[in-house]
Every structure is written in structure tokens, then in C-alpha cells.
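Q: Here's a chain of 342 amino acids. Please give me its 3D structure as C-alpha cells.
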Amino acid sequence: MSLPLKKRLQAIDYITELIGRGEPHISAKVSETFGLSRTTTSNYLRKLLNDGTIEKSPDGKGYRLKEKDFWIHQSLKGPFPSEDTLIQQFLPHIEGFPDQARRNFMHIFLEMMNNALEHSGASRVTSHLRVTPIEFRCTIIDDGIGIFERIRQFFRKELNEEISLDDARIQLVSGGFTSDRARHGGEGIYNSSLIADSFAIFSSNKVFARDYEKVDPVSWDLQIPHRGTMVYFSVHRDTQKTLKEAEHANPDDGFYRVTLPLRLMTLTGTALIARSQARRFAFNFAEKKEVVLDFEGITELGQPFAHEIFKVYRKNHPEVRLITRNTTPEMDRLIQRLMNEG
């Protein structure tokens, strides 16, 4: 008995998703989910082959999504291209995807391209778009100074402070950092990382990602450049993520709230100790009204670090509400004592 049209389309989408995930037991999974026979599943696979959605794997033993690749090579020796010029080169290749997926892709692509054009000091930017039936995957590579090195130079020049590349990377966590506040709010990378389904920045042998522990360039088939910056992101065709949600915005307050995982401060351990650590981290609080400090994965909170955040910073910035999450009872006692001291 044939499935109703809606269920049939759902089954075909599910088969496509399984192939995209590299699932080896397609028939069993489809049968478990939809109750289809192997013969019906084979008919759906044949349809996907005939319409060019999938193709046979090189070894002939399975299937893979049919991918299409497109490139933009942009020299920066002349005038910068306009946003319209940039997006028009990729726009025809993302037609047919839902509006939200296309909006998210265009927003992230333009934000990351503008960063490369205006801030990298590069002579060349290369963009690669890979389109599959279920998602867009994009890399943007420049040969400039490198984003983390640029942030480090900004701290050295403007704030007279030497920071490490790891500390420089942390400045991207909240969307509060910009080296040119007159022209940029600093939220482009932060918002892009939230509305993408995968997002990472590679530079100076460092990586920035919302879940940096899960980033495996090998699994993404990425060739990390020796210099400059590479941005990788993907957008799923059925994404429900919106820029409004990412911005934590309302008409009065704008971009007001951010959640900061403190584990990003402790790449070589699980302790937060130094006052200087805290001052660098507090740079992420810029122009926020509410900051959620997530202590997940932190086993030790030193008094100097806590004093700098919960007494010194709080006293100097009473307009910023500090909220803690995933603290231990010992951390809570220390934080509460410092906040009670005023």
C-alpha cells in the first residue's frame, strides 16, 4: 500500500538525511521509522538517483549526496567588491532552498567576507561553496595577518597590554569585541556562530567555535592554511534559527544579553585563578546589560579571579547584571560573600 504523499516525502527526506550522515543501514532505519519494506525503500533510492539528489559511492557499496562546488577568487589589490556583487555570485546556487536557510547563509557569508575584506590585511580572499540537497557548506580563506593575531596587536597598540593568542580568541565569544567600534558593533561573528549549524574560525593554529572541543577539521575535510584566517560554516536546509533569536534583542535594549562559557578561559586546565585573566574576560561584557557566566567544567574558582569580576567589575559597572550558572556550593559561597561586600 502506498504511503500518503506527505508521509512519502517525509520518508524520502529521511533517506536523504541518513545518506548525508553516512548511515550504513538505511533500509533498517527507514523500516523502523516508517514501516516501509526494503523494496519500497529501494524504489525511493532509485528515484533519488534518477533525479540527481544522490549518487553511488566510489566503492559502489553505498550512496552519497551529490555535491556541487562553486568558487569565488577575489583579489584585494583593487577596490573592494560591493555586497551585491559578492552575493550575486552565489545566489543562483542556493535557489530552491527555504527562505530561512538562504537568509542565514547570506547573512553569515556577507559578515565573514566583509571581515576578510576590511580587517585582514589580505591580498586575496577565496570562497568555496559546497551545496548538497540538505545543506550549504562554505569556507572563506584569506592570506592576511590572522584574526587572533590582529586582536593581539589591537590590545598591544590601543590598550598597552600583551595577551596570548588564546586570550585573543576568547574576545570573540560574546560579540563585544571590535577593533573599529565607530564602524562595527562587534556582533557579526557572534551572531553568525549562533545562526549557523556548524561554525568555526581557524587561524594561527587556534580555533574559535561555540563548542571548540567538538571541532575536528579532518572530519570536515578542511585544509587549514598556514597563515591568514579560514572561516567554515554550514546551514541546514530546514534550519529554524533566526537572527532575531541570536541577537537576544528587543526594540529598547538591542543586543543586551550574552552567555559566556568560562571553560574557554581554561584551555590547559579547569581552574580560574588570576586577576589578569578576569580583566581580559570582562572585556567581553562590553555594552551588555546581562551576562550569564557558565561555570560548567570549572573545578576551581580562585579568590583573585572572583574578586575582580564579582566585586571590582560589579562595583564599576552596576548597570550590568551578572548571572551565574553551573557553580558548585563552594563557588556560590565565595561569589555571594564578594557581592555582599559591595
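Q: Can you summarize the key feature?
A: Residues 99-119 form the longest helix (21 residues).
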